[in-house]
Amino acid sequence: MCNLEKRGNLFILTLTGDGDEHRLNPTLIDSILLALSQAKSQATPGSALITTSQGKFFSNGFDLNWAQAAGSTEGARDRLHHMVDSFKQVVAELISLPMPTVAAVSGHAAAAGFMLALSHDYVLMRSDRGVLYMSEVDIGLTLPDYFVALVEAKIGSASARRDVLLWGSKLKGVAAVTMGVADAAHDSPEKLHEASVRMGEQLASRKWNGEVYAEIRKSLYPNLRGLLGLPTKVIASPRL
């Protein structure tokens, strides 16, 4: 599950459950979508969102145990497809959210959990613990098209994309920053929290028009936007 807290202009979305892997099953996906909907409905110029987690993991990806509990190969495949389709909406909501977003990756972020972090505008990590890891090449799963588009949109180096997707590199904080996957790494959970709040407050202080911000963000990633089915619109600011 997750909870959403509003602190001034900041929305803090926390994946909850001490020690939990925060596997992205239908329950957690629905909880995240509800939290994002609430943040969107309460957004004002100067809002920002920080997503973080409790425990060792940021998110360990899709809940494959839930899929396998279907009891048959066909049932497991159907459940996996359901999670892929449902999580696509989470990515779409983050890419179109009318405020800046920061992922404070306080632990391991694997597969869809990595994609959850990458769906934010900024990714901050811990340097003392936690990795970013696309496990699909190691466990024998192909990638949804919107995963690939998200990686193409957010990781600028072709060699970094190769290492992430085809080598299954496990990126710790400093390496992720060096490769351009994360924006900063901090050596304790307290420093990560402080840095993410500081960045959120700096972003919020700009008091940007949220709709304009979201449209510009979508325009940065045309292939991803198309795969997510996100419409676009032209907004003329009253400041003009």
From TrEMBL:
Top-level EC class: isomerase
Assigned GO CC terms: peroxisome
Recorded metabolic or biological pathway in which this protein acts: Lipid metabolism; fatty acid beta-oxidation
Pfam families: ECH_1 (PF00378)
InterPro entries reported in the protein's UniProt record: ClpP/crotonase-like_dom_sf, Enoyl-CoA_hydra/iso
Source taxon at top rank: Eukaryota
E.C. no: 5.3.3.8
Tagged with keyword Repressor: no
Keywords for this protein: Lipid metabolism
One GO MF term attached to the UniProt entry: delta(3)-delta(2)-enoyl-CoA isomerase activity
GO terms under biological process: fatty acid beta-oxidation
Catalytic activity: a (3E)-enoyl-CoA = a 4-saturated (2E)-enoyl-CoA; a (3Z)-enoyl-CoA = a 4-saturated (2E)-enoyl-CoA
Family membership: Belongs to the enoyl-CoA hydratase/isomerase family.
Name by which UniProt lists this protein: Delta(3)-Delta(2)-enoyl-CoA isomerase
Species name: Cephalotus follicularis
